[in-house]
Write a structure and sequence with these properties.
This protein is mainly β and about 375 residues long. It folds into 2 domains: about 5-270, monomeric porin ompg (Porin); about 295-365, Immunoglobulins (Immunoglobulin-like, Sandwich), CATH 2.60.40. It contains 1 helix and 23 strands. The chain is elongated, with a radius of gyration of 23 Å.
């Protein structure tokens, strides 16, 4: 219920899930929410509704598919509902610069009104580094209602910043321009600018999200604001209590009204991978040291990266300090693989590959989930 419509859904997807670093095996995640909400819309009496929502996502290294839907029913059996299907294709991983192609289709229905349907395509370019990244993109599509279609064109840019190296807290922001022809005969053209910002926290037992935004229609120079917040309290690994509140802006091309809401519900499903609470993996006495990585200082900012892989014939490393480009390490007779490079002190993200196999996290580093179902390792450079 963030209320930015078809363009806003793509914009927020960009902010929340930019291309970031290395990805590993495909994953599937999903959940179902059941609850109740209090809604208030302009020109209508406030009402209580029962709500149901679901989401399902499949994420691989080069592509992802996601679907979600929400349904609200009043005691008078009036309803509103919408569903969204999104698919994305990504450039090969392990690159600092990475393109993304995204397509989305959606449907919206409301009691007593004809349903609306929409589709949109978007092309983006991402650039990432250790604790953040930026993106920019353009797109277009159509919205159809009553058998009449209107074109939608959009441009957007934004970025994100991790506040801590384990990605438990993150700030993200984006700006977008939308030019939409409403699918209603003689309806005025809609053009506006959006600026949005989010703070998110992902801990062991609680996940928090706060967002706000400003919309500026180009025709009259007015300003519209919105804000939203949500909290998820995990009761078990498969069940959580979810509360959210806020104001959502209208999506005029699809006939979606603005709304103020407060909702509480229960979530059942697969818990998303967490960035926080990841324990440091420590080597026990007698444990195999294969796969360990260490960084040693040799002077100024020059560091030596050492990977222990006695049985390997080739070892590569990728990380923010290599601009996410794979770099081959030099082998030594004692089974160590080395790379000398200028690396700034502080936390850095990385992964290794042995003999051309899959990218993996060194055994002695904490694992941090990326946004494509994989993991990277966090190493602290002295």
């Amino acid at each position: 219920m963030r209320g930015l419509g078809i363009t806003g859904l793509l914009l927020l997807a960009s902010v929340a899930r930019p291309c970031r670093g290395q990805t590993l095996p495909p994953t599937t995640a999903g959940s179902v929410d059941l609850g109740a909400a209090f809604l208030q819309q302009p020109g209508l009496a406030a009402t209580n509704v029962l709500t149901a929502a679901s989401q399902l996502a499949y994420t691989a290294a080069r592509y992802s598919l996601a679907t979600n839907g929400v349904l609200a029913v009043t005691p008078q059996t009036r309803y509103t509902g919408q569903g969204v299907l999104t698919g994305s294709l990504y450039a090969p991983s392990a690159r600092r610069f990475r393109w993304e192609l995204t397509g989305m289709t959606s449907a919206f229905g409301l009691s007593g009104a004809a349903p609306s349907f929409a589709w949109q395509g978007m092309a983006r370019e991402h650039a990432t580094w250790s604790l953040g990244g930026v993106f920019a993109g353009v797109g277009g599509g159509q919205v159809a209602q009553h058998g009449v279609a209107g074109a939608v064109r959009t441009a957007q840019a934004g970025g994100f910043l991790r506040i801590d190296p384990l990605a438990r807290d993150e700030l993200s922001t984006a700006i977008a321009y939308t030019d939409a022809e409403q699918p209603i005969a003689a309806a005025p053209r809609t053009r506006y600018r959006d600026v949005v910002g989010y703070w998110s926290h992902r801990g062991d037992l609680i996940e928090l999200s706060l967002g706000t935004g400003v919309r500026s229609p180009l025709d009259d120079g007015s300003l519209e604001t919105w804000a939203s917040g949500s909290a998820t309290f995990w009761l078990t690994p498969r069940a959580a209590l979810v509360a959210s509140a806020g104001r959502a802006l209208a999506d005029e091309p699809r006939g979606v009204p603005s709304v103020r809401y407060f909702s509480v519900g229960l979530r059942f499903g697969w818990r998303p991978a967490r960035g926080g609470g990841v324990p440091l993996v420590r080597q026990a006495p007698g444990e195999d040291v294969a796969g360990r990585v260490d960084i040693r200082a040799t002077g100024d900012s020059l560091r030596v990266v050492i990977v222990r892989q006695p049985a390997a014939s080739r070892v590569e490393i990728v990380g923010d300090f290599t601009d996410w480009e794979p770099v081959e390490l030099a082998g030594t007779p004692n089974g160590e693989w080395r790379l000398e490079r200028v690396i700034t002190p502080g936390p850095h993200r990385m992964a290794i590959r042995v003999d051309g196999g899959p990218w993996s996290v060194p055994s002695n580093l904490p694992h941090v989930a990326d946004d494509f179902g994989g993991e990277v390792g966090i190493i602290i450079v002295p």
